[in-house]
Amino acid sequence: MEDQLKKDIIENGKQKSDDHKIRKAFKERNWSEIKSSDSWSIFKIMSEFVEGFEKLAKIGPCVSIFGSARTQPDHKYYIMAEEIAAKLVRHGYGVITGGGPGIMEAGNKGAHSENGKSVGLNIVLPFEQNNNVYIDPDKLITFDYFFVRKVMFTKYAQGFVVLPGGFGTLDELFEALTLIQTKKIGRFPIVLVGKEFWSGLIDWVKEILLDGEKNISAEDMDLFSVVDNPTDAVKAIDEFYSKYLLSPNF
After folding, report:
1. Quick one: pLDDT at residue 32?
2. DSSP states of 30-56
3. DSSP code of 149?
4. In the prediction, which pLDDT does 23 show?
5. What confidence tens digit (pLDDT) does each residue in 23-78 have?
6. N or C: which end of the chain has fewer CB within 10 A?
């Protein structure tokens, strides 16, 4: 009974907050209100970019690891993420995550266990997201804006390893694919971990986007690879840089 009451209060508060945001979007504002509100937003956005650039400019070659914040420590994908991160460090990379729990925590934990660089790009959310304890203290940055945070993920990573996750993980994956496809950033390896998890999405992309609607090109299917274990995930990153005769990082 008490738990249900608490739940009702939370839902009530959330509904009122949503209603307020919707009404506010339709409210007419005068120039003074617009200028004041938007100016402060611009300064806040600029400050987040400046902090990110200053802290990450010297981190060296890193790989971003993405995945669900809800994955528990005893789950196979948490264990795989931790092992992938540890192997990446042994191969000379640091690790960047979203700084929170779940797969992100596993990535930072694996890097920390090998005394590698462990970066956390945290985001302020009303739920789920508190930074984990395995991030280097000087490499933790907390953002208010998702788009600023995503710039940091792509600008300072030499590869993406994407484990199973939800909307946020898919957003980060397709952001990276879009930037590479449109040549807004240089090519870097994108490795999806978990063939069973990703197979349905990949089939849909191939059958609908490529074959059915012709919304992408055949070569776009080569922008990512799919693996099933930590060794192959790290191998895909190493082979990419060997193939293109590149040294990781800028």
Report:
1. 60
2. -HHHHHHHHHHHHHHHHHHHHHHHHHH
3. H
4. 56
5. 555 556 665 655 566 778 888 999 999 999 999 998 999 999 999 999 999 999 99
6. N
Neighbours of 246 (CB within 10 A): 13
Q: For residue 97, which phi and psi values (nearest 5 degrees)?
A: -130, 180
Among 16, 26, 85, 96, smallest CA distance to 55 is for 96
Burial (Cβ within 10 Å: 0-12, 13-18, ≥19) of residue 236: buried
- What distance lies between CA 156 and its chain's CA centroid? 12
pTM confidence score:
0.83
Strand boundaries in 93-185, DSSP class E: 94-97, 118-123, 140-143, 160-162
Q: How far apart are CA 153 and CA 143, in angstroms?
A: 12
Q: Angle, to 10 degrees, between the axis of helix 103-113 and the axis of helix 76-90?
A: 40
Q: How far apart are CA 37 and CA 43, in angstroms?
A: 10
**Which residues partner with 140 through β-bridges?**
120
For 140, which DSSP code? E
pLDDT at position 250 is 38
Least confident of 34-38, 99-103, 128-132, 143-147: 34-38
**Domains along the sequence of the chain with CATH:** 2-46 (no CATH), 58-243 (3.40.50.450)
